[in-house]
Structure formats: structure tokens, C-alpha cells
Amino acid sequence: MAERVLVRCPVCRREHSYTAPVYPCGCGAPVALPLLSSAAAVQVRHRTWAGSWISVRCPACGRVDEWPQPELGCGCGTTLRVPVARGRTGVAAPSAEHPPPVARTAPEAVPEPAPSTADPAPAARGPVPRPAFRPVTIRTAQDAKLAAAQYLRWLGFEGVRVAERTPASGVDVRGPAVVAHVDPSTSPAALRDVETLWLNGLNDSVAAVCFALAGYGKDARARADELRLPLFVLDLTGTPRAVNEAAEQLIRTPR
Length: 255
Prior knowledge:
- The protein is an alpha+beta fold.
- It folds into two domains: about 5-90, no CATH class; about 140-250, Trna Endonuclease, Chain: A, domain 1.
- The chain has helices at about 140-155, 190-205, 220-225, 245-250, and strands at about 5-10, 15-20, 20-25, 30, 40-45, 55, 65-70, 70-75, 80, 90, 160, 175, 180-185, 205-210, 230-235, 240.
- The strands form five sheets. It has a six-stranded mixed beta sheet with strand order 11-12-13-14-15-16. Strands 3-4-10 form a three-stranded antiparallel beta sheet, with no helix packed on it. Strands 5-9-8 form a three-stranded antiparallel beta sheet, with no helix packed on it.
- A hairpin with a 6-residue loop joins β1 and β2 (about 15-20).
- α2 packs parallel to α3 (about 220-225).
- The longest helix has 15 residues, at about 140-155.
- This is Restriction endonuclease type IV Mrr domain-containing protein.
């Protein structure tokens, strides 16, 4: 099974239970990153592409692949990097193709339900749950745009497409009901990015959503909260994390 460790935020001292991410090796075996439970998590202040990857050996075939360093977002706004044992072999994780063995037990006798003369009530139909989100691993700036587009489609926006080149408007991803800016740089997104994106959404009468790899500056975050502009941070697995209430509301809104 994937390892689980307790991670303490060095800023607010809050503890989080964190499970190692699982990645597919080229041989088909699932590999979980070997976490270090004895080491403290580190606050991510500045990102570099070279420092955001970790080499892990597959326990099934011995192949060495590079995977994103595991990160965790704390409720206080701090992004934490979870330490990994360098040079260690990954942990074999169960998958649908290779499930863990299940203990067999004798089936219990189940009493037959008593017959009912009442007419059966119609089954209540609730909202159809979303399928599991399938992220796009980010290795390039274009991957970041693809990851954002994939997430918007998962949220229910239709006709979402990625711009081949970022236009002057800063809109990297566009659909009939949404526009999005994706900042793949290693510096926090700026106030101007937030305001420009909001104006684009206002002019087109569509939702505006912002994605960034390195988070947001304080003034950009404050302005986004005023404008009710959803902000998401992308980790290198391609999984977005909501960082303000507008983003949480966007996730909760059915389409």
C-alpha cells in the first residue's frame, strides 16, 4: 500500500495526514513514492523545474523514472514539500490490474426479506457524481495549459480548448462559457494577471478562472477575492488546488 505520514506545517503547526502519490511505471506496475516520516516538511518559497522532480526506482522492473516532488497545501496558505527518501526503491501499490490479495471467508446467511404488499416507492435520483479527475503530469508550460483545460472540462465546461500561443489578452484556455489564464512560471502570479483575466471574462460575459504553478502575490490574491475570481494552484502532477472561496464555489456549482 502507499505510505501515509503525518506532515506538520512549519508556519501554523497544523498536522495533516498525507498519503504518498502513486504513479504508473512504464512496465504497468503502480509505484508509490517512498516518503520520509522522520523528516520535517519544507515550505515551498521558490520553485525551480530541476528541483521539482525526484528519481524513483520501480520495485517491479527496476526502471528509474522522474516524478514530481510530493507537495501538500495547508489551510493557512502555505505550500509544503513532503520529503522523499532519495535513492530508495518506490513502494509497490495496489491497482485494478494487480489488486492486493483478499482473505476468503465463508458467506454469511442472509435472511430473505419479508414480502411487502405496499407499492414500491420510486427511487430518488440525486445528482450524478463526477468521475475521478485524471490529471496531466506537468513537465512543460504547454502541459500546464493542458492540465488546466482538462480540469475545466472535468468541472463541466464544454468546448474548452488551449491556445497554441498565449495571446496579448493572456487567455490561455477558452471555452464558450469560460476563459482561463495559466501562469507556468516559477514566480507568483501578479496583480495585473488577475485584473486582465477578470476584464476578459467581463467583456465576454463568461466565467474567468486563473491557474498558477507558484501561487499568487498578496495583492493579486486580495484583488481576486474582491472580484470573486477563482484561483487555483497547480502541482506538478497536474492536480489543481483551490486557494480561495470563489474557487471552492466553482467546484461546488453543478453544470
